Amino acid sequence: MSAKQFEKMLNGLGILIVDDNQYTRKMLRMMLINLGAKTIYEASDGVSALDLVRTVDPDVMILDWEMPVLSGAQVVRIVRSPGVFPKPGLPIIMLTAHAQRARVTAAMRLGINEFLVKPISPKALQDRLLSILVKPRPMVQIGKYYVPLPRRLAAQPA
Is the predicted pLDDT of residue 106 greater than 70, yes or no? Predict the structure, then answer.
């Protein structure tokens, strides 16, 4: 996909940035604008994020793991509640400063689509967005979790 095609794709999307750090939100906003995004919403905590998901219906959420009041993990649990929350299939990119395997595994189990480690590079952000937009995986129920179809299963021929 060319940079122009990607920019055009991003142009039509609403992207919600959720991070309690104002600097991180500002930096992500600038990266998204430079990649071609036009509609960007921001929330500084999980409660505001859930309100924005309900009211502005974003196409993608970039969510910090560690926040006050409701953590990123708690927000994901609420969003990934079919029949309870209005948009359980919302693509979510989880942001964190901690890339330990246990955290990645926990986030994947909760149902995030992509993982992004701080400090964030524009290239890494673009790669995660491309993954979600170009190769979206269907949402499936695995045990008590509602998650994107695991890549190893999505890659198998039908």
Answer: yes
Continuous segment of H or E residues that includes residue 79: helix 72-79
DSSP structural state of residue 45: S
> How many Å apart are CA 72 and CA 80, to the nearest integer?
12
- In single-letter form, the type of residue at position 94 comes to M
What dotted CATH number matches 3-154?
Answer: 3.40.50.2300
Q: Which residues of 23-35 are buried (b: 16+ CB within 10 A; e: fewer)?
A: ebbebbbebbeeb
In this predicted structure, the answer to whether residue 152 has a pLDDT above a threshold of 90 is no
- Dihedral, 90, 96, 100, 105 alpha carbons, nearest 10: -10
> Who contacts 78 (Cβ-Cβ below 8 Å, separation ≥6)?
50, 70, 84, 85
d(CA 6, CA 21) in angstroms, rounded, equals 27
- pLDDT tens per residue across span 123-138: 999 999 999 988 888 8
Domain assignments of the chain as residue spans, ordered by start:
3-154
In degrees and rounded to multiples of 5, residue 64 shows phi and psi of -75, 145
